[in-house]
Recover the amino acids of this structure.
């Protein structure tokens, strides 16, 4: 009856031209951005919407009415938030045995190709999936709530994701709306059960219920400015190729290079970045993987879209809603040539609850205005920085709260002790 013709993926800000598809009985469509009506549309149901020139997570809702003002339907989409771009449904069958339950996974991908890998995890632990219609879920403690997550690669850069809760004091019969809230534990803090977290989180003064607490794996995106890559190559030139063993910590990392135009081909559109696939290796393989596995063409130092890349990296790091971070690697004399500034990119990561770490690589500090950079002059310094990063990420937890919320709208109450929102 009503749907978006304009779909938003990746980093979106500024003026967005929104088009709506509506059936013949729809007389008008209201557009609501973050709870505030921004447009009232008549056919052909299209209008520009100002998202602001600083990127932020948004909720855009279209509500269709007939000529008598009766609501006929609505459509919603998230902007600048982790999201799948296909439909997926995860249903846990009622009953089961004391030791296991059965789940059924179905999906609909808007691509013509066959769906790729199917991954199902329980609190971050991968489960075998031979038949998506009959996935056996081991039950170790029925009194403890756990997060069951499913992800399907549909091809054509299309991904479907969902999660639900297993165990605890609530039935698991479908895919309820849940919002991931990453928090950082102070030293010595041990979180209570989800029931004990009642009153710790709120949205606009209204308390939120925590459905589950998850540790899970780590997703880290390294934004490597070209000068930093040169310095790191020099630091690691005496080390061998990266170790390919999987990390016991379930670490995934990737590299994003803020080079839009290159010297040998200056006509390349700078709207995209050079990005690697995700690597799943040990923590001590990060430096060797970067310096042995990445090859850069010559780049103009004034055209490096550093802040833009940091914002895009934040969205990528939060994509699987696991423990996450972005690490910015800056070499001597790094210059930002993008549309965003550091003062615009940093608040976006804070809104997504993605911590940012800045490492200055080389003999002299970078002049780029990024606060609190960690100085790295040797390969040993890099190893120490990685160890500190690992320790910080191990103190993250994901609180899954009931309902669909913008991440920046969820806050801690005075009852929350020994934690802060991840940033």
């Amino acid at each position: 009856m009503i749907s978006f013709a304009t779909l938003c993926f990746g980093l979106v800000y500024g003026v967005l031209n929104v088009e709506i598809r509506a059936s013949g009985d729809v007389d008008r469509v209201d557009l609501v951005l973050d709870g505030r009506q921004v447009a009232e549309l008549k056919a052909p149901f299209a209008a520009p919407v100002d998202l602001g020139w600083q990127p932020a997570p948004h909720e855009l809702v279209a509500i269709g009415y007939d000529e008598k003002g009766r609501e006929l339907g609505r459509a919603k989409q998230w902007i600048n938030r982790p999201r799948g771009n296909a439909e997926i449904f995860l249903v846990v069958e009622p009953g089961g045995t004391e030791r296991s339950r059965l789940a059924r996974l179905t999906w609909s991908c808007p691509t013509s190709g066959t769906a790729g890998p199917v991954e199902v995890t329980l609190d971050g632990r991968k489960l075998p999936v031979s038949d998506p219609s009959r996935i056996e879920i081991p039950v170790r403690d029925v009194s403890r709530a756990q997060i069951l997550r499913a992800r399907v690669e549909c091809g054509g850069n299309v991904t479907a994701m969902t999660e639900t809760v297993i165990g605890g004091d609530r039935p698991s019969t479908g895919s309820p709306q849940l919002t991931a809230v990453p928090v950082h534990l102070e030293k010595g803090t041990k979180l209570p059960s989800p029931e004990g977290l009642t009153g710790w989180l709120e949205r606009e003064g209204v308390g939120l219920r925590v459905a589950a607490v998850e540790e899970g794996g780590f997703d880290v995106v390294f934004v490597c400015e070209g000068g930093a890559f040169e310095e790191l190559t020099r630091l690691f030139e005496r080390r061998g190729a990266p170790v390919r063993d999987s990390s016991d910590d379930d670490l995934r990392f990737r590299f994003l290079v803020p080079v839009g135009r290159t010297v040998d081909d200056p006509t390349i559109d700078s709207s995209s970045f050079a990005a690697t696939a995700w690597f799943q290796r040990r923590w001590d393989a990060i430096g060797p993987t970067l310096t042995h596995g990445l090859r850069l063409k010559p780049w103009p130092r004034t055209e490096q879209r550093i802040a833009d890349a940091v914002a895009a990296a934040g969205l990528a790091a939060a994509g699987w809603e696991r423990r996450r971070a972005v690490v910015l690697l800056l070499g001597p004399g790094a210059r930002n040539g993008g549309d965003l500034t550091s003062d615009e990119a940093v608040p976006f990561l804070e809104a997504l609850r993605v911590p940012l770490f800045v490492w200055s690589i080389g003999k002299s500090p970078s002049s780029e205005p990024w606060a609190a950079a960690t100085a790295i002059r040797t390969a040993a310094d890099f190893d120490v920085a990685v160890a500190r990063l690992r320790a910080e990420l191990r103190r993250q937890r994901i609180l899954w709260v009931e309902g669909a919320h913008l991440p920046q709208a969820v806050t801690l109450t005075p009852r929350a002790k020994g934690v802060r929102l991840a940033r």
Remarks:
- The radius of gyration is 23 Å.
- Residues 148 and 394 are 20 Å apart (CA to CA).
- Residues 262-271 have pLDDT under 50 and may be disordered.
- Helices lie at 226-235, 286-293, 306-317, 342-352, 379-394.
